[in-house]
Amino acid sequence: MRLTNLATLEATDIYIDATANLSSYTDRYDKFTITLGALDKGQYKYEVTENPTSYEAGDTLQGGLYTFTDSGFGYITAASDQSTTAPWGCQGTTIAGLQIDIGTGPANTALIVAGCATAGIAARIANDLTLNGFSDWFLPSLDELSLIYNELASKGIGGFSTHSYWSSTQEDDSNALTVNMNNGGVNGHNKDQTNRHTRAARYYTIGTAAFPVAPTIYVNSSTATVVTYPSPPVESPTFYLEQPRTESVDNISVDVGVGAYFQGGIVVTYNQSTGAGTICTLEDISGDMGIEWGTEGVSITGANSNTNGQQNTTSILAQDPLRPIAASICNDLVINGYGGWFLPAPFQLGLMYTNLHLNGLGNFSTIIPYWSSRQSDDTNAVTFDFSDGTTPGAAKSDPYLVRAMRSFTYLPTPQVNLIVSQ
């Protein structure tokens, strides 16, 4: 849920945990459990949004099975095959413009349907499909289909056959590419073969409102009472307190879902069971031109972890006297009274890339890479490129960007229970 103060237009994201239904937020729920943050007294509007961090691969969502997110979209796979005998179609005909990449399945499908008039082909079956109220299905590209294997079929989710499935990517005028759902293997097959399976996919835009109307609520800072007014129309849920709170707003649990602002930064990871999480700074701390990693020719013992940025940072600062460097500006950082920042390891930068950047959060540069805290050798260290998620090496004296990270532990106080009616 997103609360927006109507006076200041400041938005606060709040994590919603559905306790009575495990499908989509757009479905009817009997109850939500919600954690309110330290909100200023005032008038707010709320929007319930689809948050991909709330789902795991295989969860029922938007007409199918939630599979993965990429570039601001959540990908859904149909829960069963649409065909076990349909050909790809038009053997001997090259369909111009077909791509392999994630995000190209819809365009590929449209090109195939336009360029191959044969009835009953895999792309046309997906294109014409209406399933669970959704009609924007497509035949996935090769890379999309490979991720469907990785996230669903390889884990025994989705009821996939052990046979090969058509992608919307062709190999040449006579063959199209498939993914074997038994082992993930990629092969080219004759377009007219009729023993290949078809499984449609679709996607939705992450963060769009799941309900069309944004009602208004009021927050009183002295009693922390939330009141709905006016009552929203029938197509939007009504939120009200199951039991009024008497504590100060400052004592109500704050939201620490991935992507939320918390303790001086933006949440990268959070485990609700243990309270353990990580935060990165809201912006780069190295300036627009970057800063060097350290002294070339100095080998740092202990700065070789791919996952533990704190360990790497401590080792760098103990053995390289050069200042300022990437590790030192992280270590010296204090934001809103919070210290303990470190230069993240490559894996931790990868979490920022997956959990934040690919969901349009964090304002990361895709032009200049970021330093990680992992050393390659005495003259080079590992960087992270947010344009494609790769980790190239670079000379330690080269200037690159820095995004600091810190760890935290936070277990919320008792939650505010809200009833949802529709």
Tell me about this structure.
The protein has 6 helices and 23 strands. It has 422 residues and is an alpha+beta fold. The chain has 3 domains: 127 residues, no CATH class; 140 residues, no CATH class; 122 residues, no CATH class. The protein has a 5-stranded antiparallel beta sheet, with no helix packed on it. Strands 3-4-23-15 form a 4-stranded antiparallel beta sheet, with no helix packed on it. Strands 6-7-8-12 form a 4-stranded antiparallel beta sheet, with helices on one face. The C terminus is likely disordered.
Brief write-up:
Helix content is 13%, strand content 25%.
Show the helix and strand layout.
Elements: E1 2-5, E2 11-13, E3 16-18, E4 31-34, E5 42-47, E6 60-61, E7 64-70, E8 73-77, H1 105-115, H2 122-127, H3 142-151, E9 164-170, E10 175-180, E11 186-190, E12 201-205, E13 216-219, E14 226-228, E15 238-241, E16 261-262, E17 265-270, E18 276-280, H4 309-319, H5 326-331, H6 346-355, E19 370-375, E20 380-384, E21 393-395, E22 405-409, E23 416-421
Antiparallel strand pairs: 1-2, 1-5, 3-4, 4-23, 5-13, 6-7, 7-8, 8-12, 9-10, 10-11, 13-14, 15-23, 16-17, 17-18, 18-22, 19-20, 20-21
